[in-house]
């Protein structure tokens, strides 16, 4: 089974089915960076009480 590559922009039902069936997942660097930035944003908001 081939790996499903997550780019943060496109995700098909077929990819979701593959992951549900056990396919490995690879996250592209740009998508990972966006996740990190989003988490930092949420943590800052939480820490400030917003």
What's a quick, concise take on this entry?
This protein is of the alpha+beta class and 50 residues long. The chain is built from two helices and two strands.
Low-confidence stretches: none
Strands, count: 2
By secondary-structure content and strand pairing, the structural class works out as alpha+beta
Strand content: 5-15%
Overall number of domains: 1
**Order of SSEs:** EHEH
Report mean pLDDT, rounded to a whole number.
95
| Tally of helical segments | 2
Rough outline: elongated
Main β-sheet, spatial strand arrangement: 1-2
Biggest sheet features: 2 strands, parallel
From the N-terminal CA to the C-terminal CA, the straight-line distance is: 44 Å
Key features?
alpha+beta, two-stranded parallel ribbon, 2 helices, 56% helix
Written description of the protein model:
This protein has one domain. It has a two-stranded parallel ribbon with strand order 1-2. It is of the alpha+beta class. The longest helix has 20 residues, at 29-48. The chain has helices at 13-20, 29-48, and strands at residues 4-6, 25-27.
Helices and strands, with pairings:
Elements: E1 4-6, H1 13-20, E2 25-27, H2 29-48
Parallel strand pairs: 1-2
């Amino acid at each position: 089974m081939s790996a499903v590559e997550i780019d943060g922009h496109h995700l098909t039902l077929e990819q979701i089915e593959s992951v549900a069936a056990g396919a490995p997942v690879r996250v592209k660097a740009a998508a990972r960076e966006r996740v990190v930035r989003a988490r930092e944003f949420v943590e800052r908001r939480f820490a400030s009480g917003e």
